[in-house]
């Protein structure tokens, strides 16, 4: 059973930066992707970013392109979401997820394991 633990959330002013981390453990397969989702109160879950294990494929939602980057450390089985130029509308609980598929997932349905989430609050 894969476990995911997110960290790095917090309160930041608009225009600031945060880096989220997601550490995986218990993984027994070598092909996977890791992604980040977010959900704000009263809103649907949004697929924010994703990266394949090789780093060769990435995905970013239009709402975060140019502001967020995603990277991975395979030795630590950890993925990072660097969030710059944060806006109040980025406020949400951020979840990381992973699967055992080779290609980049297209939606939440293609992820098998989920973390508990970390709160990000951006004040105006």
Structure description:
- The chain is an all-beta fold and 124 residues long.
- It has strands at residues 3-7, 10-13, 18-25, 33-39, 46-52, 58-60, 68-73, 78-83, 92-98, 113-114, 118-123.
- The strands form two sheets. Strands 2, 4, 5, 6, 9, 10 and 11 form a seven-stranded mixed sheet that branches.
- Strand 4 (33-39) and strand 5 form a beta hairpin.
- The chain is globular.
- The termini are far apart.
- The model has no long low-confidence stretch (mean pLDDT 95).
Features:
124 residues, mainly beta, globular
Mean pLDDT: 95
| N→C terminal distance | 40 Å
Q: Biggest β-sheet, characterized?
A: 7 strands, mixed
Structural category:
mainly beta
Q: Kindly state the percentage of residues in helix.
A: under 10%
Rg measurement, Å: 13 Å
Count the DSSP helices.
0
Low-confidence stretches: none
Number-wise, the strands total 11
**Shape category:** globular
Q: What is the chain-wise order of helices and strands?
A: EEEEEEEEEEE
Percentage of residues in DSSP E strands: over 45%
